[in-house]
Each structure stands twice: as structure tokens, then as C-alpha cells.
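Repro:
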Amino acid sequence: MTPTKTYIRDSVSLTAITTDKFKTGMISLSLSLPLSQRLTAYNMLLSGVLRRGTEKFPSMALLNKRLDELYASAIEIKNARFGKNEMLVFSAEILDNAFIDGSTDVLDGTLEIISQMLLHPLKDADAFPQNIFEREKSNVTDAVKAEINNPKAYAANRCAELLHKDDPDFPTLEELLKTISETDAKTLYEYYLRLLASTELRFFYVGSESSESVSKIIKERFSEFNGSLTLPNPIKAEVFTELKTVTEDMPVSQGKLSIAFRTGVTAKDKEYFAAALFNEIFGGSPSSKLFMNVREKLGLCYYCSSSYDTYLGNITVSSGINVSDKDAALGEILRQLEDIKQGIISDAELTAAKKSIAHWYRQIYDYPFELFAFYGTRSLFGIEASPEEYGKRFDAVTRDEIIKVARGVTLDTVYFLRGTLAKTNGETEDCDE
């Protein structure tokens, strides 16, 4: 299942994996933009507005009726961030035409709806319809406020905001709320027109159709599109400038400790494979040092894990703790990092980390959307490799290479959300409080 890339026009491309393995395939359309807090807010609003209806299907009910006729195809529109780039992604899960009697072309019908959503949304003169805009504005505002009111999500967001505090393009929750409140239906429509004129369309397909036949449908359905060829902001590791330590209070009983580190290693660096394994050993799996020692052995956290941003080179640890255990938990998390730096990695830990990553790469071939997640994002940055090649690179990583990466890891941000409420008798901790 090797992908092939075709340029249908200068500003329209298709990456296709032709296979008869799946009864249910997928088609996606991605538009890439530079990251900025204002455009992020606009995209959050736009993804909701475009779902509300089109010229041919002027209501959600008619859109859904047509999708039902296409064997219950499902279309999502969402925002995704990769380094200093944001993508507006239309993705559809579709029944493969090879398993249909031929009376319905599901792929063509789905692409027709996506083209309608993108190129022919409902409008009112030079603005989006006011009632649709206000409804989505309310929905997006509520979603952002829900992030603020969820302690676990809020702590993760505040840690990220502090990590990126010197980056004017990084959107904070408060900035998003402000921009959303200031945006009107006309402003959003003007942004939508600029978006169409200044980006390219990147399609990704998994199914039994040939690349040529899919390209032909795209060419017909998106003949009106006249964007421009765009290059994404390149992957670049962020660098350490100063240690940031912040504590804030919230009326909850559990504390949330979020810690961010700089690694200096991204998906484009030769040390990437060692860095990903470092994260797996540190806190990226149930067999990691953070889970086995900080949570299980010492009982200092209700949950404790790490995640690796491969496009900016940062690792973030998220944990839920008793407020009184903050210093002990922080100290033990840093001690686990120091152990790795000192070479304390057992054979069992290294083997478990490699097996965990190998399992993920093996299962990519079992799901169309996993193939898109692997190939679609990497191809955006010119990274060309198969899951098998990645698996071999991971398997070849040595303990010394992991230790070398660990010794380059720098503590950057410590954010503590201090719960101010005492637990009542019999109260149990909820890791998602």
C-alpha cells in the first residue's frame, strides 16, 4: 500500500493508496495555513458554519439526507495543528464502490458534498447568514469555555500557553474568546474568501479506485477552485530561553501538575527515533517510568503520562495529584528523567518501548484513517518513508542514543493548578476532574 502523489493542477494535489483491503475507505481534503491566534479562531467558526448547509443542500437535514443516500457516509470538518501550521481538514468515511451494486457512486457523491461545503456554502450577500453564524459563534464560545472550566484540559492549555508565551502566533484560550466575540458574519466571510485564494487543496484517498479515476472526479468537482501553491512553515524545534514556574488556584479538590520540556529534536532530525523511544520509556506508555514508579509504586499521581510534540520538539507531562503531594510528585518526575540521563534503562524497559511503538506501526495498515495520519502529515513536510521503514529505524535505536537525547532534554515550564477545595468524607478522586 504505497501512496502515489499526483498534481491535478498547480494548487490541487491527490495522494492515493489504492487497495482492496477495506470495505470502508476514506477521502480527505486539507487546507494548510500559518498558525496564528486570529486565524485559529476564524477556522473554529468556519468549520461549524460550513457544516450548516450549501447552495444545493441548504440545510443540515438535506445534507444528512444526501449522506444517508450515500450509504451513511460521514463528513467531519476539524482543525489540526502541526508545528507552526494549522490545517482545516474535511474527512469522510465512505463505503468502497467495489462493494456496491454500481447504482450509486459513493466517492463522487461524497466529493460533491465536500465541494459544495467548501466552494458553495450558504451566504447572505457578502456575509454568512446571520442566524447560522450566531449559532456557531455560540457553540464555539461554549467549547472554549468548556476547556477553561475543565481542570485537566485547562492545566494542559495553560502549560502550553506558558511554553509558547514568547510566540505571538500561539493562541491562548483568552485570546480565542476575545477574537471570537469580536468576529461578525461579514468578517468571517471575508476571511473565507481570502482562504480560498491563498491556499492549495491537498486530497488523500484510501480505497479501491485508481489514482487516475479519483483525480478525474476531483478535477470535475473542484474545477472552480483557483487557489495558489503554498508551502508550509518548516518543522523547527523550539529552544529554551528561561524556566517558567506558575501556580494558580481553582475551586476543585485535586491538583493538576503539567510540566513541559524542550528536547531540540523534531520529526525531521535523525535523532527523532531515539527521542520518540525516550518519551515512550519516560511516560508515553503503561510500562513507562512515570506510570510504573510515580503512579503505581509511589502512588503520587492519579494519572501521569507524557506526550511528544514531534513538530516542535517538546515533551509535556500531565498528572493529577493531591495538592499536598506537589513537591514530591515534581521531584520524582524529574528524578525519573535524571535516571534516564544517567543510563538507568533496563532491558525490559527498552524492549517494552520498542514493542509498544512497533505495535502502533503495524496497526497503521489496518485502518484507512491511520494511513492518512501517517502519510498525510509527513508528506506535508517532505518526509517520505513507509511504516515498515520507520519500524526498522526504531528497532535499530540503541540505549546510548536514547541516553544522548535524554541528556539534551531541558525543563522549560512547571504549571501547577492548585485545588482549593477539601475532599469530603468518602470522596474518590476522578482523574478527569
